[in-house]
Design brief:
There is one protein chain. The N and C termini lie far apart (about 65 Å). Helices cover about 75% and strands about 0% of the residues. Helix 2 crosses helix 5. It folds into 2 domains: about 60 residues, Arc Repressor Mutant, subunit A (Orthogonal Bundle); about 130 residues, Tetracycline Repressor, domain 2 (Orthogonal Bundle). The radius of gyration is 19 Å and the shape is globular. By secondary structure, it is an all-alpha fold. The longest helix has 28 residues.
Length: about 190
């Protein structure tokens, strides 16, 4: 009975920092070498031993899912911060789309690795949409309200367009998705403003 009454204690700040460091190192390794990057490479990037990674993430799938969620959360948190700190709502939207492009290039590799677990992949995709569509909507609406963009484009449509322009960027070093996405975002601009 005592176990049922115990509450879960929040993790210590240093444990959260260590996990964040591991997730960022794994994301960087995934961008550089794909999701099959050796754990020893991820450990070296994070400045820890491989046992530390396995203690936090017992399987590669656990690590991949955690990286994906971490990147979604970072992208979601960036939206309001950019809106508060940018000189204009359009500039906030443009900067957020840049972050979104960085995430998408990694996401394609992560998604491919998770295809075998369709239910898990579907749950992560739903998490992605539930977390990021409202952020993009807020940024797009703020830019439209300020008169900087003229669009009846829904945020999910903009995100899908950006996503489609990013396909293949992770495997073709000559393909510059960021340049094409910049053209798309420039096309949203209200030149009369």
């Amino acid at each position: 009975m005592k176990d049922e009454e115990q509450t879960v204690r929040p993790r210590r700040a240093d444990a959260r920092r260590n996990e964040t460091t591991l997730l960022e190192a794994a994301a960087a390794a995934f961008v550089a070498s794909g999701v099959e990057a050796p754990v020893r490479d991820i450990a070296a990037r994070a400045g820890v031993g491989t046992a530390t990674i396995y203690r936090h993430f017992p399987t590669r799938a656990d690590l991949i899912i955690a990286v994906y969620r971490h990147q979604v959360e970072a992208c979601a948190e960036a939206g309001p911060a950019l809106l508060a700190d940018s000189p204009s709502p359009y500039e906030a939207l443009r900067r957020w789309i840049d972050l979104f492009v960085d995430f998408l290039v990694t996401k394609h590799g992560l998604a491919a690795a998770l295809r075998a677990d369709q239910a898990g992949f579907d749950a992560l995709h739903t998490y992605f949409l539930d977390s990021l569509v409202p952020v993009c909507t807020r940024l797009l609406d703020a830019a439209a309200e300020s008169g900087e963009v003229h669009t009846d484009l829904a945020a999910v449509e903009l995100m899908r367009g950006v996503g489609n322009l990013c396909i293949g960027a992770e495997s073709d070093p000559g393909y510059d998705a960021r340049r094409l996405v910049a053209l798309l975002v420039t096309g949203l601009r209200n030149t009369a403003a």
